[in-house]
Structure formats: C-alpha cells, structure tokens
Amino acid sequence: MAGRGTDEHPHGADRLCDIGDRVYSRAVRRGRVPRRDAEPVPCLLDLALLHPDPDDMDWLVPTAPQEVMTRLLRGMYDEVSASQRRVGSVVEAFERYAGLGRGTRSPQTFAGPAGEGPAIRVLDGVARIQAAMDEATQACTTEVLTVQPGGIRREAELSEGLHRATALRGRGVRMRDLYTHVARHGQGLHTYLELMGDAVEARTLDEVTERLILFDRTVAFIPANAERSMALELRHPALVEYLGTVFERLWRLALPLAAPLPDTGIEGISHRERSIAALLAEGHQDAVIAERLGISVRTCRAHIARLSETLGAASRTQLGVKMAQAGLDGPPRSAAVSASVTLPGRESRTAR
C-alpha cells in the first residue's frame, strides 16, 4: 500500500506528512471531514485512508485505523525479510490513531460483519476498484455471479478481468454471467467462454440491470456513477442477500447462450424488434430503448424502420396502432390470438 504519492507527498501510510497526519487525525476524531480539507493532501485518498461518504460525496470518511494497519501488515508479510524493521513503526502509528477514535461513532459509518470491514465503502478511481476486486477474487472460494449490461462485449473488456476469471477457475469456483441478447453476436464473448470451459455458464435476457459482481454471497460491487469511475463495495448481509436474490430471479428468466431466441410468431418480426416494440409501447425514447437493449441508437432506429415497413405504418402514431393490432405492445399473446394476426398485404398466418 505504498500509494502513488506526489512530489510533495512521497511517503506511505505509515509515515504521513504533517498536514496529512492532521487531516486524518481530525477525520478519525470527528467521523468525517469536508472533501476540500483533503485537497492539499492527495496522499490520503491515494493511500485509501479517506474515501467518499456514501451519503454525501462532498465529505470524506476515514478508513478505520485497524483496517489500514491490517492492509499494511498483509503486504509487509509478503516481503518480511526486507520490511521487518518497519513493523514496529506501523503498529505504533496506528495504535495512536485508533486511540483517537475510541468511544466515537459516526452516523455515516456503516459497520460490516466482524473482520469484514465497512458494510458500504466507496471506491474512487478505476485502480482502487480493480484492487478491491482482486482482493475479493483471492478470497473467493465458491461462486461468482455477474450481470454485464451494454450489448456486445469488447475483447478489451473481457481481457481486463481474464486474470481474475482464470484464478477462480483454477480453484474450482463456479461462475455465472448474465448478458443482454445482443451480446450473443460478439465473438469476444464466445472466445472467452471457450477459454473458461465448464467454469463459466452464461445466459441472456432482452435487458438486464446495471453491472453487478457478487463474490461468495458475501461482497458485491456495483457502479456508483454513470461513468463507472466510482463503485460501491457492499458487505452488508441484507444488501448482499437482496442482490443475490435479484440475480437468481433474472437467471431463471434468462436463456442459455446455446439456446435459440424464441420466435415472435409473426413472420418478418425478429425477437429484437418485438422487444423494441414493447418498449416503444411503454413510451420510451429511442435512446433509452437502445441503452436498455445494449444497441446503438442508429441500430435501434433501423429496427423501428423495419417494424414500420413490415406493419405498413406511415408514421410513429400509426406504428403504435399497428403494433397494438399485431399484439406487439406487450407480452406475447397466446397462439390462438397470434393466429389471427394479419399484416398489411399478407394472408393471415399462425404462430410458428
């Protein structure tokens, strides 16, 4: 945990600069400090001694001194022969910080299970997120559940987590991944699944929730902003159990990657176009539909144009009427109803 540091703060967490010492001590005593107080000391954020308050991003809360000391010692044990002389100074420094916080409790601090750290922690920055996920991967022994929105997965995205997936497979950990149906068309996903073999099972849905990664039903990671440059690390048992239940219900609704998508029952209307029609009927704009299904806005509009052509609609208003007549404005109708659908210029047909 040496930290990046800056030219003005070339130190580790066990030898804070004077101003860093003052700001961190104040945070431990009071439970949190304004973000602006830490601007002169980026070392505190670089070293994960302070992190954003989940309830108010304008404030920073301290990492418990005991947790910081545990992280330091874990890294030091790996190189104990070279770091033995530093152990005493680390213990002495953080015992003093721990004394500052005894008897106080911040209302913004959510304690997790004993030995598991805080129940909710904000991870600020991609490097911090990756480090936390690497740590969770090392501790994982049973299963990993993931929800991966966004359509076709780029090979770079899949390669980013390949080292974690390979390590998990080596320990016999079972992995289950949920994607949108659009992801089926990406060669990168199929290559990844071939590499992982039986260790990974994938299923797809029309649309999925935001990204979720859940390790051993004990720790979960979800995005904390739209750019995904911040994440929440969740260890609260009730939250983790809830997310696990959501995953399992989506998993039961999803289709195995090897299974074909269901037929719409209407000639000329693809499964994706049926999904787009249902979202149009709910009143969603093109951009929202594209994001939810994991496709580009341009592709979405091309499908809408094909829908209009197939149904013989000359305008969006007329398209809505035609979709309702064809039963495309909601869940699939029964075979008897589908059998009566007649598209413009075509004979009645039965569902295939």
UniProtKB/TrEMBL annotation:
Gene3D superfamilies: Winged helix-like DNA-binding domain superfamily/Winged helix DNA-binding domain. Pfam families: GerE (PF00196). Residues 327-352 are annotated as: Disordered. Residues 262-327 form the HTH luxR-type domain. InterPro entries: Sig_transdc_resp-reg_C-effctor, TrmB-like, Tscrpt_reg_LuxR_C, WH-like_DNA-bd_sf. PANTHER family: HTH-TYPE TRANSCRIPTIONAL REGULATOR TRMBL2. This is LuxR family transcriptional regulator. It comes from Streptomyces prasinus. The lineage of its organism: Bacteria, Bacillati, Actinomycetota, Actinomycetes, Kitasatosporales.
